[in-house]
Amino acid sequence: MNKLKKLWEKQRLLIKLIIMSLTLVVLTLLIMYGTMISMTKNRVIHDYGERILNIGHEVAADPRVIEAVESGHTSSEIQNYASKEEERFQLDYLVIILKNSTRLTHPNKELIGGHFQGENDQNRALDQGESYYHTGNGPLGRSLRGFVPIYNKQNEVIGAISLGIMSPNLK
Question: Rounded to whole angstroms, what are the CA distances from 98 to 3, 69, 147, 161?
Fold first, then answer.
C-alpha cells in the first residue's frame, strides 16, 4: 500500500488528472450500462406481460372455454383447444381454472383436475375479476404468468385463464 502511495505522489499532475478522468468515465459507463440493462429487462417483461393478457382475454371470451368452465368438466376438445393456443401463441402453458382453483386443462395431463399450484395468485382473477401479470413459480418452474378472469353471460366470474412463458424463454 505504501508503494502505491509513493508511486502516486511521484506522478505528475497531468498523469493524475488523466487517471482520475478515465476512472470517472469508466464508472459512468458502468452505471449507464447497468441502468440500460435494467430498463430493457423491465420493458421486455412489460411487453410480454401485455401480450400475455391480450391472448388471455381472447381465450377467456371463446365460447368453447366458457361452456367447458360452466360444465366444470374437461374434455379432449378443450384440451386440444388449449394446446393449439399454446402453440399458436408460443406459450409454455395455458391453464383453464375453475372458480374453485381446479385445473380444467394443463400441459402436463397428470395435473388436470388438481388444485392450481403457485402462490395463490389466481385469487385476484377469480375473486376480484382482475387481469394481471407478474413473475412467479409454479409446477413448471419460474415464469412470466398472466391471469385473466372468465365471465359467463351474467358477467359473473366463473373461472380464469393462467398462461405464461417460462423465464429462460423470455427473448
Answer: 72, 6, 13, 9
**Residue 95 and residue 162 in contact, taking contact as beta carbons nearer than 8 Å:** yes
pTM greater than the 0.85 cutoff: no
Q: Is there a contact between 82 and 111 (Cβ–Cβ < 8 Å)?
A: no
Phi, psi of 5 (to 5 degrees): -65, -45
Query: The sheet that has 141-151: what strands, in order across it?
Result: 93-98, 157-166, 141-151, 132-138
Nearest CA-CA partner of 56 in 87, 96, 92: 96
Q: Cell 476512472 identifies what position? A: 23
Cell of 29: 459507463
Which spans in the chain are helix H?
Answer: 2-10, 13-60, 63-71, 76-89, 123-128
For the segment 90-132, what is each residue's pLDDT rounded down to a tens digit?
999 999 999 998 899 998 888 888 888 766 778 888 888 999 9
The model's pLDDT over 32-78, given as tens digits with 9 standing for 90+, comes to 999 998 888 888 889 999 999 999 999 999 999 999 999 988 888 99
